[in-house]
């Protein structure tokens, strides 16, 4: 599989690998997460590692087919439309709209119960409306999960991506409300 960086950035113009793939295992090997405070962490696989590597650079990117151009999330080795194994990572603006949300209630894992109520949102990207990412709306990238009052969350509310480096070293995408 070939993964290509689609920006004009001359510091990362590799056409065979993207950050976080087999040649850059630091992001994937760390496992990431906030295990120290009991929060669950994503575990990047070979297909998803570039997503987290770009997030560590403050970039929101999604995997796209290099042959037909279809964007896809979650990342996977084969295009579901044309079955090509060639892919690239397209930079997104980081803007979206809340498509859905939920407020988890106990019983929860202890670290999450301590922060409840908090919000979990499903964000539809402006640049790729059929791509939806799960995350937390927060007051700032490093704020607690319960930093946004639940009554401020509305379907259709505009949000922008923020990048939070977890205690385990992995960077995850969180969401800032565009209208405070």
Q: Describe it for me?
A:
The protein is mainly beta and 180 residues long. The chain has 3 helices and 9 strands. It has a 5-stranded antiparallel sheet. The chain has a 4-stranded mixed sheet with strand order 1-4-2-3, with helices on one face. Mean pLDDT is 84; it is low at 6-33.
Low-confidence stretches: 6-33
Q: β content, as a range?
A: 25-35%
Query: Biggest sheet, strands in spatial order?
Result: 7-6-5-8-9
**CA gyration radius, whole angstroms:** 17 Å
Helical region count?
3
Judging from the principal axes of the Cα atoms, what is the shape? globular
Category by helix and strand content: mainly beta
Integer average pLDDT: 84
Helix residue percentage: under 10%
Largest sheet: 5 strands, antiparallel
Order of helices and strands: EHHEEEEHEEEE
What is the CA-CA span between the terminal residues?
Answer: 42 Å
Per DSSP E runs of 2 or more residues, the count of β-strands stands at 9
């Amino acid at each position: 599989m070939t993964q290509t960086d689609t920006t004009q950035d001359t510091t990362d113009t590799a056409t065979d690998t993207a950050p976080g793939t087999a040649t850059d295992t630091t992001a994937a090997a760390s496992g990431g997460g906030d295990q120290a405070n009991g929060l669950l962490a994503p575990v990047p696989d070979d297909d998803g590692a570039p997503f987290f590597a770009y997030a560590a650079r403050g970039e929101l990117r999604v995997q796209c087919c290099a042959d037909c151009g279809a964007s896809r999330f979650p990342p996977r080795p084969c295009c579901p439309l044309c079955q090509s194994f060639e892919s690239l990572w397209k930079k997104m603006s980081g803007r979206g709209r809340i498509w859905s949300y939920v407020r988890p209630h106990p019983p929860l894992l202890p670290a999450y119960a301590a922060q409840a109520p908090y919000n979990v949102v499903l964000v539809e990207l402006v640049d790729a409306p059929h791509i939806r990412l799960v995350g937390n709306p927060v007051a700032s990238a490093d704020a607690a999960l319960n930093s946004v009052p639940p009554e401020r969350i509305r379907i259709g509310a505009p949000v922008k991506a923020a990048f939070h480096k977890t205690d385990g070293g992995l960077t995850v995408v969180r969401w800032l409300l565009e209208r405070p």
